[in-house]
Amino acid sequence: MKKKSGSINDENNPNISRRRSRNQVEGRTHTCPTCLKSYLSYPALYTHRKLKHMGNNNTGRGRGRPKKDQNENIIEKNRYNPINITYFAKEGRTGKTTPKEIDECIDNAFLDLYIDDENIKRNDARNMKDYQSIEEHPFLIKFKMDNHDIYKNVINIHETIDKIFIDYLNKMSVFCDKKYFTELIKFVTLFREYINIMNRRIDNKNNNQEYTDINDAENIANYSNGFINKFLYPKGEDNDFFSFVKDESIDLVQNICYWMYDNNFTPYKIILKDKK
Prior knowledge:
42% of the residues lie in helices and 1% in strands.
């Protein structure tokens, strides 16, 4: 009986074309500028962008050439979206920090935050604790002693905030250069400080235990507005004592909180209210 053309018995026939696998990497030269996913053809890219980034509104247009983007500024902002890892793709942030370099970044972050008289005065104004050495800092020394395994997944959704912060920093280290990663460590450490300060005011009997060391991140979003508008920028100025630009601080705290939401550490999405 004659075999049908295209049957499984013809798998070695070089004249028969076959569908390309969706897992095929080679030839994916069409990249989405919003989420950086790549596709084998422009029509596939266009369909992705229409479904994922342009909504499902029916414009009444028929088939034909794709409609040109109306607002290049929106595309530029989405290109470095703070609610996902594309935020770190911007020049001045992007790169990679090795596990060995992470320890150096931790040391530099501690020095920038806690050492010298000016820093101590600044930290006192924010009611932060004073640390003379990194060994005294319960979070940074824990982070330094970690093995920085970027492939390890924290699967316990009720893990402590400190351990979740460490996991976040380890995961983001592969997207940041050393300089920016040091700033990221400082920022996370300050966010942690604010959370603990607020809970020390609530629970004066528990000063020996850090809130972030014994509690999960379920309510982490509740602290985001206060951290920006009361701790970093209490008078609404664009630059605070810690030399972070306000817009970038807002983006960073969104990145942290959305990462926790995406990984099921909190059921709440963040909504920031920017005080002018």
